[in-house]
Amino acid sequence: MLARHALRMNIAGKITHRLVELEGKFLYLLIALLSVFVVYPFFQGSPMATIVLDILLLAMLVAGIYTVFDKKILLAIALLLAIPMFGGRWSNYFYTHPVLLEIDYGFGAMFFLFNAITISSYVLQQKNVTHNLIFGAVCGYLLIGMSWAFTYSLVAFLEPGSFSIVAAGQTSQGDVLPHFFYYSFVTLTTLGYGDITPVGPFARSLSTLEAIVGQIYLTVLVARLVGVHISQSYAK
After folding, report:
1. Tens digit of pLDDT for each residue in 44-79?
2. DSSP string covering 165-213
3. What are the residues whose beta carbons fall under 8 Å from the beta carbon of 148, sequence distance 6 or more?
4. Range 183-186, long-range pairs (CB < 8 A, 24+ positions)
5. For the chain, domain boundaries
6. How many other CB atoms are found less than 10 A from the CB of residue 110?
7. Model's pTM, two decimal places?
8. In 39, 103, 127, 174, which residue has its Cα 20 to 30 A from 97's Cα atom?
9. Which of 104, 111, 115, 167 shows the shortest CA–CA distance to 140?
10. How many Cβ atoms from other residues are within 10 Å of residue 54's Cβ?
């Protein structure tokens, strides 16, 4: 009897440790995601801007892969999406070609969307609300914005004139991605300042879809977390 009890406690301890380990990874990803908005503006416009942005994106890739590190299938998919993005972005320092930007933007959009789906699925399946679970929920929201930012960049690259950007200092294709980080989250939160506007039909459809997805995510997530919290309170 005691042996069974000890075995159950051991299994429960391992499961709890695994869950805490997984949840702890969300904080690293959250910090990496927020760094684009906190750190990058200090370098924007300087000669170091591009390398700083690339380092921050690399940190996001590593943190995103780390969240699925203990699941082989998800890890394999994450690597298949992250490696081409990493290669397309960093190879620009040695060889410049338009295809590399397409690979960077395309695989970047898929990687962040994949990461958003896996984390959101995990969050919605949990039975207890914790601080780390909330970190995961925030990460899912930010990852959606990142995915759309890369998608907008790809659309703007493939179809020039899809967006009207009223911003000083936009002189090259390399400056487009930071602009679309801003535009994506303005659209996701339905603020819509108007300094960047979709002109092409595909760009407009993507913008509308992102606004809808952002509102649905918040509605479903908040309802789920509130429901779990109420159930958790009654269980006590």
Report:
1. 888 899 999 999 999 999 999 999 988 899 999 999
2. E--TT--SGGGHHHHHHHHHHHHHTT---SSEEE-SHHHHHHHHHHHHH
3. 109, 184, 187, 188, 206, 210
4. 183/149, 183/152, 184/145, 184/146, 184/148, 184/149, 184/152, 184/210, 185/145, 185/149
5. 16-235
6. 19
7. 0.84
8. 39
9. 115
10. 16
User: Which has the minimum average pLDDT: 20-24, 113-117, 149-153, 158-162?
Assistant: 20-24
Token pair, residue 60, equals 């996001």
Q: Could you tell me where the DSSP H helices lie in the chain?
A: 2-38, 49-66, 72-90, 98-125, 131-158, 176-188, 201-235
DSSP label of 163: E
Contact 88, 101 (CB under 8 A): yes
Query: Which of the 8 DSSP states describes residue 96?
Result: -
What type of residue is 201? P
Distance in angstroms (rounded) separating the CA atoms of residues 176 and 131: 35
CATH code of 16-235, in short, is 1.10.287.70
Q: Compute the Cα dihedral for 141, 142, 148, 152 and give only its sign.
A: positive
Q: Which residues pair with 163 in a beta bridge?
A: 198
Q: C-alpha distances in angstroms, 102 versus 82, 170, 184, 190?
A: 14, 19, 18, 27
